[in-house]
Amino acid sequence: MGYNVAIDGPAGAGKSTIAKLVAKEKGYIYVDTGAMYRGLAVYFLDCGMKAEELDKIIEACKTAEVSIAYEKGMQQVYLNGKNITDRLRTEEVGNMASKTSAIPEVRAKLLELQRNLAAKEDVIMDGRDIGTNILPNADVKIYLTASVETRAKRRFDELTEKGISCDYDEIAKDIEDRDCRDMNRDIAPLKQAKDAHLVDSSDMTIEEVVAKIVGYCK
Predict the structure, then answer these.
(1) Are the C-beta atoms of 44 and 57 separated by less than 8 Å?
(2) I need a surface site. Which of 2, 84, 116, 205 has the fewest CB within 10 A?
(3) CA torsion, points 17, 89, 35, 112, in degrees to nearest 10?
(4) In the 8-state DSSP scheme, what is residue 103?
(5) Contact 27/122 with Cβ under 8 angstroms?
(6) Dihedrals φ, ψ of 83, to 5°?
(7) Strands 123-127, 140-145: parallel, antiparallel or unpaired by DSSP?
(8) Per-residue pLDDT tens digits for 16-47
(9) Do 15 and 144 touch, CB atoms closer than 8 A?
């Protein structure tokens, strides 16, 4: 029986960064949903399919099994028992994943794979609806947030450091708009699960956030 940690929260709250660090600290598997979509894309390509062939894609989902493991501290992705990690970052696979990820049946298949993995392994997942929808029975649920100002400042600093010209006010407005969309969408809206621990990282360092979340785990 796997031990499951779910981290939800708005855009820019640092969910993925924190989840990966907690996973490393606790020895959990960080479930990289993007890598799983790419794993399915490899299968569709190996079957000679095009993204437009919806019927074939939907049928292929029935016989695809994608899983994630960590070996020597490195994420490995397996497709039907075969390690395909070195194939995930090709442009062809990326394009196929981008096109097929919007197909409801592909998303449903990924949900099935995520839950199967969580049932067997100690995992940590981050997103918008992990604790409310994907892993409603998670052992630990975290709602990680920060003020719009804090998230906008982090994004502004990140882009500026990379030499990318940006406007703080525009970034803040984009974050507010995205929060509104995420919280008011019809399917699996962003919200704090009733049994989730609220962690506001506005005035916390990354190390402090990781330590707080680790403290909630077994």
Answers:
(1) yes
(2) 205
(3) 170
(4) -
(5) yes
(6) -70, 120
(7) unpaired
(8) 899 999 999 999 999 988 899 999 999 999 99
(9) yes
